[in-house]
Design brief:
The chain has 439 residues and is α/β, with parallel strands linked by helices. Helix content is 32%, strand content 15%. Strand 1 (2-3) and strand 2 form a beta hairpin.
């Protein structure tokens, strides 16, 4: 089986991933779905409206770049501290010249593939990186979109105004609970107040504010309260992700919600999203977690399900349109999946993305123990990072997935798998939204 991602292809038999000689518009293949926070929240809406053309908006190749390990917080679930890479990151942080060299390489990669790109600078706290504004400016001069994922304590009106002038797309902070819970989880008294203050600054300056929550048993009961809070504070975008038991969180498996509890939480969140939208709330509520797909399928909102399982429409972005760079130049497929796939600037980004043996193994979705047998493999595939954190094997089942493959509606071998094929083909006759796969 050969999966064509743009003018790349994956050979599933020998696990290689290389570029074809022919020049094809890369964006029309690899980025059939945008994985940015903004459009991710519209994915299910487009599916429900059978509108595959909308999948093409704002496609970008995204780097999540951890510029530094410096941080004023002490989060109890931090994946940076106590990781196998932390000592190297903290003692071998890339200097300014190497950072610019990597941006040059990324720019050449984007030009070669004829696609737009985005760098989400983070840390630690990216504002604690020396010359961070010069680094951002250099990327913006190349036409690369820039977002920041940082802490609220170092943000003020002066540096927020600089970020605005540089054209930063958004600034993401975390809120993991109401005041007492958030301060406890972030390991800093006053962290909650700092988060609210930073939202006010961002809104005043005109930089879209993004709030992310990490959900576990420790704060799940406050998630609805967090959602209502961000709506009141006019946050631009809200999303949440599950606790991944790696780094400092590797001993927190007991804090992971059970599959059924997580499903019920998603149902409550969905109802709250609907209620707030009906009241005119302007906050964009994301569906970052791929397990949303299971819920929408159960609610019969995921209507367009094709008969074959060769096309990847959405789900995990690993090996499709994203890479992570650590402070020392180590490259990962995902920050929450601590498997090294390369190192910059010693290697080119394009070479890593195409030739990395570990990354090509990660692309072999058919080898996934549970997802490989599920009819929703094209849309979900759970979270390999959660599976790795819980079992030390990213191919194992996502431990918070609640489906049972012995049910016909999920078993990819069942006969009802083609129930929406004709409807899908009618609405997408040219297969415009798909990543093409040929035998």
């Amino acid at each position: 089986m050969r999966a064509i991602y743009q003018y790349y292809y994956i050979n599933m038999n020998n696990r290689t991933f290389r570029e074809n000689d022919g020049r094809i518009d890369f964006a029309n293949k690899i980025f059939n779905l945008n994985k940015t926070i903004r459009e991710k929240s519209n994915f299910h809406k487009d599916i429900m409206n059978n509108n595959p053309d909308n999948f093409k908006k704002h496609r970008r190749f995204i780097l999540q770049w951890h510029l530094t390990t410096k941080c004023n917080y002490n989060c109890y679930h931090c994946y940076m501290h106590e990781s196998s890479y932390y000592n190297s990151e903290s003692t071998n942080e890339l200097d300014h010249r190497k950072c610019l060299e990597i941006i040059d390489d990324f720019d050449k990669t984007l030009q070669h593939w004829n696609i737009p790109g985005q760098i989400n600078f983070t840390g630690g706290d990216p504002l604690l990186k020396e010359e961070v504004f010069d680094i951002i400016r250099y990327a913006r001069e190349k036409g690369i979109y820039v977002g920041l994922l940082g802490n609220p304590d170092t943000l003020n009106r002066i540096n927020a105004k600089k970020l605005k002038e540089l054209g930063v797309l958004s600034y993401q902070i975390s809120i993991d609970g109401l005041k007492k819970t958030h301060d406890m989880l972030r390991g800093k008294k006053g962290a909650f107040d700092e988060a609210i203050r930073s939202i006010h600054i961002l809104n005043a300056i005109g930089i879209p504010s993004v709030v992310m929550s990490t959900v576990s048993k420790a704060n799940a009961k406050e998630l609805i309260d967090i959602i209502r809070l961000v709506a009141r504070e006019n946050v631009s975008i809200f999303n949440f992700a599950r606790l991944v038991p790696i780094g400092r969180g590797r001993n927190l498996e007991r804090e992971m919600l059970t599959p059924e509890d997580y499903r019920l939480l998603l149902l409550k969140v969905l109802e709250e999203y609907k209620r707030l939208k009906e009241k005119g709330c302007k906050t964009e509520f994301g569906r970052k977690d791929h397990l949303w797909t299971l819920l929408y399928f159960e609610l019969e909102s995921l209507k367009a399900l094709p008969i074959d399982k060769k096309m990847i429409y959405s789900g995990c972005s690993i090996g499709i349109n994203t890479l992570t760079i650590l402070a020392d130049g180590t490259v990962l497929a995902c920050r929450r999946l601590p498997i090294k796939i390369g190192e910059v600037p010693n290697q080119r980004i394009r070479d890593i993305f195409i030739n990395s043996e570990n990354l090509n193994k990660l692309r072999n979705v058919d080898a996934m123990v549970k997802c490989g047998k599920c009819k929703l493999i094209q849309f979900c595939r759970g979270c390999p990072a959660v599976a790795f954190g819980a079992t030390n094997d990213y191919l194992n089942a996502d431990p918070q997935c609640w489906i049972k493959l012995d049910e016909d509606r999920y078993d990819e071998t069942s006969q009802d798998r083609n129930f929406a094929l004709q409807k899908y083909e009618k609405n997408d006759p040219g297969n415009r939204s798909r990543i093409e796969i040929t035998k």
